[in-house]
Model the fold of this input.
Amino acid sequence: MRIVDSFYVKSAIEPKDYPASAYPEFAFAGRSNVGKSTLINLLTNHKGLAKISSHPGKTRTLNFFLIRWKDDELEKQGFMQFTDLPGYGFAETSLAEQESWRKMVNKYFEQREQLRGIMVLADIRHPADKKDILLLEILRLREIDHCVIATKSDKIPKNKIAATVKELAKGLGLGDTPIYPVSALNNVGMEQITSWLARSITA
Ligand SMILES: Nc1nc2c(ncn2[C@@H]2O[C@H](COP(=O)(O)OP(=O)(O)OP(=O)(O)O)[C@@H](O)[C@H]2O)c(=O)[nH]1
Ligand SMILES: [Mg+2]
Done:
């Protein structure tokens, strides 16, 4: 599968403001600064599609994107949607802001019927993070399909990637959940993500 076109649709907080389209949807979640927006821009090959802010933790809305894809082998094409979720875990975030994040994301998980899966991004350099563990727990309880993307793999030596990913998977308690190391900087690992998306869309 390859992504041929991408558009920003809108930003929303409340379900009544979500885009009305019913295409299969995939969301990117993870700590602030982990690389969600960068990954969306790279996957879509569309610079500036998802805004990369110089102030981490500033995005406080769900940002929706429409994606047109083609599968040359299967001779298929169609649309899907990406959602860039606001990052969590930013140090300066107040309790009230954390609470509004939790409410906004819970409503999204609960009410977005076309939601097909979540990509949970975690920085490959950091040990398993409490907030990521909590999110993964919620996804399991809600039975929302997901994978983990270990970002910024360019920041550790190549010969350490496999072992680090294994350690992270263990720390996050992943079990059968797939985990893919990627580097947006070096454009490494994108096919694993598009294959995961394609499997989910055609399933
Ligand atoms: N070295 C390296 N840097 C990366 C990679 N991916 C993202 N970054 C950098 O990490 C920083 C944060 O990236 P963003 O894409 O804005 O992160 P985000 O998860 O969208 O952050 P929030 O919107 O605050 O939640 C930027 O300076 C990126 O250039 C990567 O694969 N390698
Ligand atoms: Mg972002």
Observations:
- The pocket of guanosine-5'-triphosphate (ligand 1) is lined by residues 30, 32-38, 52-53, 56-57, 59, 87, 151-152, 154-155, 183-185 (CB under 6 Å).
- The chain has a mean pLDDT of 94.
